Amino acid sequence: MDNKKKRVLDAISHRQTDLVPWNFELTPGAVENIKRLAGCEDAFAYLENHMLRAKYKKNTRLENGNEKDLFGVTWMASKDGGDVGIIAEYPLEEDELGDYRFPEIDKEFASGICDQLEADHGEHFTMFSITMGFFERSWSLRGMENIMIDMCINESFTFQLYEKILDHHLELLDTVLDRDFDAVYFGDDWGQQRGSIMGPNMWRKYIKPGFKEMFEKVKSKGKKIVLHSCGDIEEFFPELIHMGLDVYNTVQPEIYDLKKIKREYGKDLTFYGGISTQQFLPFASADEVKEKTREILDIMFRDGGYILSPTHTATPDIPAENLVAMIEAAKNYR
């Protein structure tokens, strides 16, 4: 087993590692910045990432330049190099399924993703990724305002919608979980700057049961679980731990008290993130980044349970030098 994968597994097992494992995800513009800085062709190899994530995501390019995803949601292309698109057309404009049909699993595409992960031959910690997971998938189909209203006044439809999304995801998991990769990565934003978007009661009513079932299926195959949610979801940490969550991303220092969450949840959760893309990395100097990285490692690295990373996919406004500075600080940290 390569040291990169072993470091991640040791971190998840809350064992102290020689170096903190790190991982950087980049938008296309950030990739080009790294390649120019380093004079290389493979930005991710240059950054020496410890993890490899492959997404079950396949969009079809439309004539007007927009893209349609597997669920029939139409997205406008991002013009600023960001990693979050804007929805141009919601398939479920009314609170009924009507003629809408959920997509069949693209088994050939899913198998190709697994092939890609298996071709890594154990060098990295490998993750099969379900993007726009559950709550995100519901609002991508209905619109954020509509799904929030649905949760409050249209219980029957909301349960029906989440049941259909869950059935799709369970079938996808059945398709891939016997393949050789390390974890399933679920992307599903629940948080805002202060607290959760839908509140704890709605989360427990509509979101938690489906994730509990998906987590159980993943764990039954001996794989780890990584959950990405932006924002403040600390109120859900105890329940997520009980459900079997291994790794939580992303850990935004402008939101969380890092010392507190490390002290209270660090024996059970591995935290992945910690260096702010919102308020720090685009504006800091490389020396300031090194200092900040050391500060975060002082808090988060002890006894494992930490993966160093920017708090979100790096965008082109973050100087490439700052990403390299994080790695240099990690390598020199003792």
Architecture overview:
It is a single chain. The protein has 334 residues and is of the alpha/beta class. The chain has one domain (3-332): TIM Barrel. Helix content is 43%, strand content 14%. The chain has 12 helices and 11 strands. The protein has helices spanning 3-12, 28-38, 43-47, 107-118, 135-142, 144-153, 155-176, 199-220, 237-243, 258-265, 286-300, 320-332, and strands at residues 51-55, 60-61, 67-68, 74-76, 86-89, 125-130, 183-187, 224-228, 247-251, 270-275, 306-310. The strands form 2 sheets. Strands 1-6-7-8-9-10-11 form a 7-stranded parallel sheet. Strands 2-3-4-5 form a 4-stranded antiparallel sheet, with no helix packed on it. Helix 5 (135-142) packs across helix 6 (144-153) and helix 11 packs across helix 12 (320-332). It is globular. The model has no long low-confidence stretch (mean pLDDT 96).
The strand count comes to 11
* N-to-C span: 24 Å
Overall mean pLDDT = 96
β content, as a range? 5-15%
* Assembly state of the chains shown: single chain
Low-confidence region ranges: none
- Shape label: globular
**Which sequence of strands runs across the widest sheet?**
1-6-7-8-9-10-11
Structurally, the number of domains stands at: 1
Order of helices and strands: HHHEEEEEHEHHHEHEHEHEHEH
Total number of helices? 12
CATH fold-level topology: TIM Barrel
CATH architecture: Alpha-Beta Barrel
What does the radius of gyration come to? 20 Å
Largest sheet: 7 strands, parallel
Broad structural category? alpha/beta
What percent of the residues sit in helical stretches (DSSP H or I)? 40-55%
